[in-house]
Specification:
heterodimer, A: 205 residues, Rna Polymerase Sigma Factor, Chain: A, 2 domains, 10 helices, B: 184 residues, mainly alpha, 3 domains, 73% helix, elongated
């Protein structure tokens, strides 16, 4: 019975074209791997870039994520959507990167970076001086900067959940699978993330 | 809608993550409460603002670079696995990190060894010094009784000049020749 269920579950995921590509990679199709890299490279770089705020590191981690996919090709089993599996790898890489940076105490708080408690006084001052304060009409570029700063006030996990939700259009179930969390935990994480963002951006709405 | 559970449901409703029943509850609340409708409005507008964030864009040649790097690293690690060598040793960066780690451990080991040697030396070398001195003074110690009997250096010189030796008669001789001592 469990074998039947397992097979039917696998059949569901086989409908995912990227799962099919990955199975081709498993069978030695190098071109299929190239297709996966092309399909996901910008998406991964985008996520890493928002998380790390470092373009070079974002490309390095993206490359590392694809390397891990390639190395795991022989033992790959289609038990989820390909993107869920890939973003789980990405999440692990991002968190490991953050942890190793913390260990080396190399995390320098840039003037534009905020902590979990909101904008730091330096950036608040910079924001005031630059005129990016409520009360005047901001252009698109200025508004983008405000949004970016608001996003940076979120914790890494809140940010990751939010980015997967917003840009990857992932369901709570898929986010939970990608981040190794329960669905209620994701629900709570996203609520806090959206609430924090709303509080930061409310003056600009 | 200030309740955190309600807020969670409001956001899950916007994300389309509620069951039909829970969604109907939220819709009822929205129909009845102005504040809830304002909240939804703000959350939706905040959500839309995220579209302003720049999209990820790979640098030129990223795909080819990635595929080449993966091919190289995979080939290297396969060859090294066959040769029973840790692939991390030859991957730039990782090998360096590992070398630093080993270097640190080696230096640590030698520091520990040095400290142990100094400790051993200070503990046992001090104990050995009196023994060395005793060995050096052994000839004196062996004849200490005789030296104590001799009493002064002038007597020894006089004895040496007289050609006599310290044997069974020595005490009498010594007593006889000692200055200021009454003769028998």
């Amino acid at each position: 019975m469990s074998t039947v269920t397992s097979e039917s579950e696998q059949n569901v995921w086989l409908r995912d074209p990227d799962v099919q590509r990955m199975l081709r990679v498993q069978n030695g199709d190098e071109a299929a791997f190239g297709e996966l890299v092309e399909a996901y490279q910008n998406r991964l770089i985008g996520i890493f870039n928002h998380l790390l705020r470092d373009a070079a590191a974002a490309e390095d981690l993206t490359q590392e994520a694809f390397l891990r996919v390639y190395r795991a090709r022989e033992r790959y089993r289609p038990t989820a959507k390909f993107s869920t599996w890939l973003f789980r790898i990405a999440n692990n890489l991002a968190m490991n990167n953050r942890r190793s940076k913390s260990r080396r105490k190399e995390v320098h708080l840039k003037a534009s970076e905020s902590g979990p408690l909101g904008m730091n006084p330096q950036e608040q001052l910079a924001l005031e001086k630059s005129g990016l304060m409520p009360g005047r009409q901001l252009d698109r570029k200025e508004m983008r900067e405000v949004v970016r700063q608001a996003l940076d006030t979120l914790s890494d996990r809140q940010k990751m959940a939010l980015l997967l939700n917003k840009f990857e259009h992932m369901s709570y179930q898929d986010i939970a699978a990608s981040m190794d969390l329960s669905v209620p935990a994701v629900k709570s994480l996203l609520t806090r993330a959206r609430e924090n963002l709303k509080t930061k951006l409310e003056p600009f709405l | 809608m200030a309740d955190s559970k309600q807020q969670e449901n409001l956001i899950a409703y916007l994300d389309g993550e509620l069951t039909d029943e829970a969604a109907a509850d939220v819709e009822k609340t929205l129909a009845e409460e102005v504040f809830a409708r304002q909240e939804v409005e703000k959350l939706m507008r905040t959500w839309e603002l995220l579209d302003l964030l720049p999209e990820g864009r790979a640098s030129d040649g990223f795909t080819e670079k990635t595929l080449t790097a993966i091919r190289t690293r995979t080939t290297v690690s396969t060859s090294l696995e066959q040769a029973d060598v840790d692939p991390d040793d030859v991957i730039p960066g990782r090998g360096r990190e590992r070398a630093i780690r080993i270097g640190r451990r080696t230096v640590g080991f030698f520091i520990l060894l040095f400290v142990a040697a100094v400790g051993f030396n200070s503990t046992f070398q001090k104990g050995a010094e009196p023994i060395d001195e005793l060995l050096k003074e052994l000839p004196i110690v062996e004849r200490l009784d005789e030296y104590q009997e001799v009493d002064n250096l002038e007597f020894l010189k006089a004895l040496h000049e007289s050609g006599l030796r310290l044997d069974g008669q020595r005490i009498e001789n010594q007593n006889r020749n000692r200055p200021g001592r009454p003769r028998d």
